[in-house]
């Protein structure tokens, strides 16, 4: 459904404002509210993640799309209706029946239903045409505009997820697995050919061999990655810190998601730091907290939620450190102000800290507004591969190089240890105002392990306009280059294979523009050859990304892997040469930092400029 200009799924609000929070001792706990029998020991079927999956299967979403219904009645007659779905879940649907067809609804017993779920109504993977049987659960009437409306609630004969697995993905997923193996074989074959022709152009063929080996190794180690198993008894104290700047539209949803965690309320603290917003963000925060406090008295929200405002705009780092210094728990979680946590995100995120050498952990970030337009869809594929494959491959060596801003957890004592250096970081004489997550990761990684927990999931709002997206990507490239050069000073102390991957991962993107120019410009003009081999190589890389996404996610968005590779090759790649010569800059380009304001005044621009989606670091 549309929210402003963005398209996001709209879960129906629970009657309980914080439905996933375990009840205090002596009351019913969260699973009791849903009808689970509880004993002294938690049986396997009541493992926290299993409980959350069960809850998610019954989550209702607001909808508005047509349904073609063929009902059977208790007197064995068929009735055809053109209804509209107003709510849908994995297990059933609520339909509004036309008023002229609302007679004798009590006679309806079951039926066959045809409909098409639009993208953005339900979680990804559910958007498709459906033809399914169902039984009537109940019928009722409700007063609406201009008269009485008639409703029919149905229960599907099988959950939509199982229906899609049987009818839609039954052959597609195995085919994706086969095609993945075929693509890998073709890449290996092409790179074997590079050895044969190596003596004709050492640089070009060496680059192709290194790039292919690097990419395939990432997929290999990413596939070997496993989550740290969830220990239901491990529940350390956690302080969540949300730095906020001009995020009026999304901050309420972010706050609610951080508090509505399947985690003991007494061990979870929330600190919101407003970095002198110029819109209605502060008022929206206060309104949200009033509603939460009114309901959450028994969860002690007044004692564990803090809202503080900075007196002047000091930047994201200062806001985070203010929150860390106020935190009372040993683990601190950084959450961007336009990111939304899944209910079991915190419980899963803290699991790697059972290892005393683990200094920081990143969760998986998905795209919340994935169905807005083609730009958000290609970012959806890119985000998943970047986390589930690339970041997971680094986690195999306990050396994740970027604990991403939307959801990451650190040991508080380590953050405080590096706080002054982080706040006052300069590069080539310029203050380092962005790349907060990469910079802090470098400080932690120098002396500790860093990890990735794929089961800790959040979603974030990504830029849906080309201008904002390109600004974000330029900022990320600058911070990546700056922090990668810093990491060179200590990465050689890590495992040799990890250091080799890091080194190659630094060289390949930097050299990529030269290689693309050589293949698309130099060879056709000066040698008269069409770069067919290079184009085939690009196509294989796109197939690798797309088929991996289809295999893991079972989503129709898999084809946007091809779109992303094209977009990257012909647009994003050419930001890299600009980043080479401007990576010292300290302006964000998407929010009013002091450096942006100064730069804008110097160019004669009007300020302030409100921050938009995509302000957070990667």
From TrEMBL:
The keyword Lipoprotein does not apply. The keyword Cell inner membrane does not apply. Pathway: Glycan biosynthesis; hyaluronan biosynthesis. GO terms for biological process: extracellular matrix assembly; hyaluronan biosynthetic process. Keywords: Capsule biogenesis/degradation, Cell membrane, Glycosyltransferase, Membrane, Transferase, Transmembrane, Transmembrane helix. The chain crosses the membrane at residues 171-190, 202-221, 497-523, 529-550, 557-576. Its EC number is 2.4.1.212. GO terms for cellular component: plasma membrane. Residues 239-414 form the Glycosyltransferase 2-like domain. Pfam families: Glycos_transf_2 (PF00535). It is found in: Cell membrane. Residues 600-609 have a biased composition (Basic residues). Residues 1-29, 595-618 are annotated as: Disordered. It catalyses: [hyaluronan](n) + UDP-N-acetyl-alpha-D-glucosamine = N-acetyl-beta-D-glucosaminyl-(1->4)-[hyaluronan](n) + UDP + H(+); N-acetyl-beta-D-glucosaminyl-(1->4)-[hyaluronan](n) + UDP-alpha-D-glucuronate = [hyaluronan](n+1) + UDP + H(+). GO terms for molecular function: hyaluronan synthase activity. Glycosaminoglycan synthesis. The hyaluronic acid capsule is involved in the pathogenicity of group A Streptococci; it may be the major virulence determinant. Belongs to the NodC/HAS family. This is Hyaluronan synthase.
